[in-house]
TrEMBL record, chain A:
<comment type="similarity">
    <text>Belongs to the phosphatase 2A regulatory subunit B family.</text>
</comment>
<dbReference type="GO" id="GO:0000159">
    <property type="term" value="C:protein phosphatase type 2A complex"/>
</dbReference>
<dbReference type="InterPro" id="IPR015943">
    <property type="entry name" value="WD40/YVTN_repeat-like_dom_sf"/>
</dbReference>
<dbReference type="GO" id="GO:0019888">
    <property type="term" value="F:protein phosphatase regulator activity"/>
</dbReference>
<protein>
    <recommendedName>
        <fullName>Serine/threonine-protein phosphatase 2A 55 kDa regulatory subunit B</fullName>
    </recommendedName>
</protein>
<dbReference type="InterPro" id="IPR000009">
    <property type="entry name" value="PP2A_PR55"/>
</dbReference>
<keyword id="KW-0677">Repeat</keyword>
<dbReference type="InterPro" id="IPR036322">
    <property type="entry name" value="WD40_repeat_dom_sf"/>
</dbReference>
<comment type="subunit">
    <text>PP2A consists of a common heterodimeric core enzyme, composed of a 36 kDa catalytic subunit (subunit C) and a 65 kDa constant regulatory subunit (PR65 or subunit A), that associates with a variety of regulatory subunits.</text>
</comment>
<dbReference type="InterPro" id="IPR001680">
    <property type="entry name" value="WD40_rpt"/>
</dbReference>
<keyword id="KW-0853">WD repeat</keyword>
<dbReference type="InterPro" id="IPR018067">
    <property type="entry name" value="PP2A_PR55_CS"/>
</dbReference>
Amino acid sequence: MMFEANTGGGSNDVQWCFSQVKGAIDDDVAEADIISTVEFNHSGELLATGDKGGRVVIFQQEIENKPQCRSEYNVYSTFQSHEPEFDYLKSLEIEEKINKIRWLPQKNAAQFLLSTNDKTIKLWKISERDKRPEGYNLKEEDGRYIDPNTVTALRVPVFRPMDLMVEASPRRVFANAHTYHINSISINSDHETYLSADDLRINLWHQEITDRSFNIVDIKPANMEELTEVITAAEFHPHQCNTFVYSSSKGTIRLCDMRASALCDTHSKLFEEPEDPSNRSFFSEIISSISDVKFSHNGRYMMTRDYLSVKIWDLNMESRPVETYQVHEYLRNKLCSLYENDCIFDKFECCWNGNDSVVMTGSYNNFFRMFDRGQRRDVTLEASREGSKPQQVLKPRKVCADGKRKKDEISVDSLDFNKKILHTAWHPQDNVIAVATTNNLYIFQDKVN
Amino acid sequence: MDVSAEAKRIMAVSISKLYASRAQRGGMRLHRSLLLSVVMRSARDLYHSACLAKEREELGTAHLVPVTPEEDAMDTTASGEQVEVEVSQVEPEPESPLTPTIQEPMSFDSEATQGACKTRTFIAKETVEDKENRSPVSPDRHSRKRRGKASVAPDFLPSKRARLSLELGEERVLRTGGRTCCRAGDVFTTLSLNSNRAIAAF
């Protein structure tokens, strides 16, 4: 496959610059403001974030005429997607936190997205209103009714321009289909169906039908005491509408073909890398659990993220990944502490750039990592307010694993494990990335000369 | 006894995390509970093994039936449901004593056999009963009733154990005395049973 040089190019060609930061400045983070998902739409013009408080904020890229600077993202719409609910049968609260947002491909002037919390998926329509009808015969502009007896002449109401109003309205609510907590949603390339996955089951929905879904994967054992693994992520293939993958807590990925049978409990392919026995520890199982799986845009590869690494798999080879990138190998000796402070359970996501040449994922201390597949180079960058002057080029960071810390390096013990970057997104075409720290969203762009 | 102290600590941390997750908003997370119970089980297995090894050192090797690799194959077929054998594993380094066992019940590399160039697998059938991995249709299942409170709770366990254990309906293992090491270990067997029940409750 030929890589095009300048389209979403490699990380060594790109100098990443700070562009914008969204969110509160103060250090005291309100729990509701914690960002839980970030997603560009298919054109990259819109950027959606979801938070723990159940809100969705959509940013829109303004089309700038000046060639010197890139366009900025400004708030386009904000709405409350999910509210806290209560399951009376189990006496459990259902969190309003938005686990995932996925944009539907655009079919008309309106935009549609799916947002989900632990139990319910909602289809939202985001539409613009920039004109309103004026000149009614029986109604004043403020809405008061006019006495018909006073009307002497008739006129035809016309549309007049108004200030742009963006409305978000829930068009469908897909509820009551998941016993366990939903971790993924993925829209099919057929533009009609989508899947939702929880810990033990995957359901197939039609976008228009809310009162039923098909269960296509069920790994719940007859006796729950025999449970050994759960589903951690699932995604449809970008082009083949019959194919999807799901990852497990044991580090395996199963590719399923919906043409083979209605219930895809039997996989078509099983991707699993044999464990390195020299790395065994109490925590081997936890760190092998896959937290995210993403197909490449071209559909030939998929990427998985486990606690310490990112792996690229060729769909034609099940025995082992074709590439493995260590995100923060220096943490391998700290697994016990990371277990105690719960960090070992953090679920990092990963993403591809537009032409699948670079992959990105987050780490601790507000660091994030990019791996250039072609150039075999990687870089560590930081999302912080210190580096946040407009167009300021980000300086590569380095973590020192042993005691011999060089200048500008950071030692492992100085890392702030409360500052974690779990969610990142890459613009589908351009070198624009969105990186979410705990409660801030950073937007970085490549340097425009 | 670094191995057992570390294993005990990890067990205690795991149990307190499991308990804490019950109070979590949104309910217990199945994935997290599963991972916690896996870690706890590994730690428990290692802790038991270390206790057993210590016990045997104290008592001599009267109960011990070390098995050479040639016999392992026969033993696997004979008591396959109880013991799985790792024959080819190299001895672990002394610096990384936390070699967990993922196969259940235990096969382990005891510190007592360090220096040997081959792994020795001890048939654990007679000495340790792995309650949680019994078939669910086990005949004495009906007799798992609450027999009474344990006399003294180990100090490294969270203080809310009593209240939560009532919710789970755990059985209490009544100990009449004996070695502190193994009594604590048995309590952990019981508590790890509950972790499975915690998952089973989903």
